[in-house]
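Re: beginner question about structure tokens

> Can someone show what the tokenized structure looks like for a real chain? I only ever see the sequence side.

Sure, here's an example I had lying around. Input first:
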Amino acid sequence: MDRINMEIEQVMKAESVEIDGEKWVYDSSIDHKGRVPLRDSTGVWKASLFIIVIEFSERLSYFGIATSLIIYLTKVIHQDLKTAAKSVNYWSGVTTLMPLLGGFLADAYLGRFSTVLVSSTVYFLGLLLLTMSRVVPSLKPCDGNLCDEPRKVHEPIFFLAIYLISLGTGGHKPSLESFGADQFDDGNPEERRKKMSFFNWWNFGLCCGLLLGVTLIVYVQEHVSWAMADIILTVVMASSIAIFIAGRPSYRYRKATGSPLTPMLQVLVAAIRKRNLHLPSNPSHLHEVPKSETTQRKLLGHTTKLKFLDKAAILDHRQDSIEQNAWKLTTVTKVEELKLLINMIPIWLTTLPFGICVAQAATFFIKQGVTMNRKIIHNFEIPPASIYALTAVGMIISVTIYDKILVPIMRRATGNERGISILQRIGIGMIFSVSSMVVAALVERKRLNVVHKNPFEGSASMSVFWLAPQFLIIGIGDGFTLVGLQEYFYDQVPDTMRSLGIALYLSVIGAANFISSLLITIVDHITKNSGKSWFGKDLNSSRLDYFYWLLATITAVNLCVYVFAARSYTYKNEHSTTTIAVADCDDGDNRKGMV
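And the corresponding structure tokens:
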């Protein structure tokens, strides 16, 4: 009778836990008072909307500055084309590499909410200094509208301001995006499906900020003043910070867990110490924390790659199992976390050429628009940077079609909850990047032919909308590859490195900007020694069409390497401690990239 009562009690307890799981969120999150979050009043879209608002504001500021930066450097500060392109690439590179530091601090020490708040404040101070550099009489480049020779004090203040914005972006970008994704519980099937759409709609909000940045803000820069545009951006950023703070009661928070790099070093040290030991034939004999002792942590299943690292989890029976030294014995999960990062390296490297193609849109593409006919109806002339809006249009189109049409069709066809794999999505976008460079080369060749036929008028008779196809194509590619990279790095990194995962995605663009500058330097040196440089003092004396063909070739060859790396890639194999299975937990080692 006692045994029957015990079984009834266990069943009732299990049912109670399941009911609690619907009411409360048991994924290690806490609410703003440090308690277990209530599902109905926290997280999901009610919280994400506040987060998307501040992302909209940040992208409005970033693209309002970034797309017109090369124009400002050449027209106001009077840098030549090659120097200005390098300056833009360096700034963009720093801006997208700084998140590696910001993501690390968010995961290890500060937490994501605090990091977003601090970095947004730094961003605001950068905008404020930028405004002062164009408003305060002693800091302005010059007194009139036309600047033949800017004041010497203006240039260092200007660069200090935009690099302060870079510093703010370093903490803002990785922390905010991962903080937004944290609002969805992977253990709840309904929230998990919403989370898959989150990255798509996150980028929709991003594109709205981009669109206004390269149209409204750039128009104000061109037809009113640079100072007025800066004032608008500063006010919008201050307002969005206030809105972000107002959403505090509805957020779900994750505590900082200490340096995520320490467990990786422990695995390496333990594996080297045990390099002479033999691996057990059965992986179940390797050390792992029992599921009953974990606190909602997702354990990773064993994989057969990089077997040397498995030695870190070999149980040494001479040790006291109660007092284990983490530098001598680690768990299978920690070993697999290090394997995840190592397996990401080929994917990271093979997406760099895509980033190089993207870098051209904010530099040479826009500079081409300056030389062309930008008049539309009734002699209204659009700012050259506004053509960049077409990348956002292309991205919105591709994200909307992907989320609303392609994914539902592919879900029914393949049975895969995502529709197609993340790496397949990235690969599709890389095909578009090759196409954009081919189209860019053909259009630039057409522009140069117009210049040669009429050297006095130049390409002013050629409509700027000849550039529309290359902007649209690269925007469509962004909708596949950039969104795919966000989802890939967030999803595949260890749980303790989610902010750093978003930073890794951004670092692809950052490293690509530096490589683009290096490539310009190398090509300039080689072609100059061969007769005539591809990069002249201005566009009409340059051969950008040759440079675009070079990028198309590099990206096409790299795409073949990417396909090989993606096909051999093994996705994360998770085992949740809860009763609900995670979507990506099946088939372990057999779950290949399959591009």
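Each token stands for a local structural state, so reading them left to right follows the chain. The two ends are 58 Å apart (CA to CA).
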